[in-house]
Amino acid sequence: MKVLGIETSCDESGVALYDTDQGLRAHALHSQAALHREYGGVVPELASRDHIRRVLPLTRQVLAQADCPLEALDGIAYTAGPGLAGALLAGASVACGLARALGIPAIGVHHLEGHLLSPMLATPTPRFPFVALLVSGGHTQLMEVSGIGQYRLLGETVDDAAGEAFDKTAKLLGLGYPGGPALARLAERGVSGRFRLPRPMLGSGDFNFSFSGLKTAALLLAREHGADEAARADIARAFEEAVVEVLVEKSTAAMLATGLGQLVVAGGVGANRRLREALTQRARETGFEVFYPPIELCTDNGAMIAFAGAMRLARGVPRTGYGYTVLPRWD
Ligand code: KG4
Ligand code: ZN
């Protein structure tokens, strides 16, 4: 079964072709980072317009790369939410229009389900059931995953998402957009232990997170020492270490509580090198396996949407016609 996936929920246009027999056949991505940089964040109207410009050329590129004619597709998956309404509509209209013209199913996919399943695009591949740590710009969740569509929320952030905290802290340290990778680069030059930031909710006894206080604590340090370049790097280092420690401890607790043997990490913050190293080490010590998506599939992309759509199609999605709606907020 060949499924095209279209992702346009935020500031990346992603298109990919997933084949249930042959795996990921091709994927292409256009990042709008340069477009939004001068505004310090994503401008929704600019994002929608750029998706409209990019989606069809990316689709042609992917089909050509995979040497797959449009008519050979069995379904078209698109991100139906959550995300920016106009951006989502750009992808949904192309997907549903093409699907209607071809007479094949259009499959609306939950963006987070895409992230959640993305480690299954890597080898070695995790097997159900597993625990997923989902750490993106909009969400921080621990989830017990028993199968496609069978997700039990163990805990989540009560305020900012981990990626959002990275982005906001990067901004107050004077770093550009997107902030997470920039902060991680600055932290590489920082000294560990010069500043110590709190570990919010570390001992809360549940699987919930809180990151907004950490960002405020970083702000106070930045006000006091931020004029000094070396101190800024040390603050970045302290911030990254605090986030990583909380994520590692809570994930370990979730592994022990569920008794499961596999942890899957997904979402943009999953690209963070220090997080990967700390989790891999903890997994070794504690005796569980940890799986990551390929680095380029950690942040938003079409491959995860094509994959989630193919999994749903293979299980027989109910036909809903080609009328569509997007869900900017979707639980
Ligand atoms: O999953 P994603 O692409 O988009 C959402 O669905 O939110 O995640 C983007 C988030 C941003 O907050 C970005 O700063 C963060 O992931 N991020 C990182 C790194 N790469 C991306 N955060 C920390 N370290 C990184 N290397
Ligand atoms: Zn995402």
TrEMBL record:
PROSITE patterns: GLYCOPROTEASE. One of its GO terms (molecular function) is tRNA N(6)-L-threonylcarbamoyladenine synthase activity. It comes from the Bacteria. It catalyses: L-threonylcarbamoyladenylate + adenosine(37) in tRNA = N(6)-L-threonylcarbamoyladenosine(37) in tRNA + AMP + H(+). Its main location: cytoplasm. Its EC number is 2.3.1.234. Residues 25-307 form the Gcp-like domain. Gene3D superfamilies: 3.30.420.40. Fe cation binds at residues 111, 115, 300. One of its GO terms (biological process) is tRNA threonylcarbamoyladenosine modification. Keywords: Acyltransferase, Cytoplasm, Iron, Metal-binding, Transferase, tRNA processing. InterPro entries: ATPase_NBD, Gcp-like_dom, KAE1/TsaD, Peptidase_M22_CS, TsaD. Substrate binds at residues 134-138, 167, 180, 272. GO terms for cellular component: cytoplasm. Its cofactor is Fe(2+). The keyword Ion transport does not apply. It is found in: Cytoplasm. Binds 1 Fe(2+) ion per subunit. CDD domains: ASKHA_NBD_TsaD_bac. HAMAP family: TsaD (MF_01445). Required for the formation of a threonylcarbamoyl group on adenosine at position 37 (t(6)A37) in tRNAs that read codons beginning with adenine. Is involved in the transfer of the threonylcarbamoyl moiety of threonylcarbamoyl-AMP (TC-AMP) to the N6 group of A37, together with TsaE and TsaB. TsaD likely plays a direct catalytic role in this reaction. Belongs to the KAE1 / TsaD family. This is tRNA N6-adenosine threonylcarbamoyltransferase. It comes from Pelomicrobium methylotrophicum.
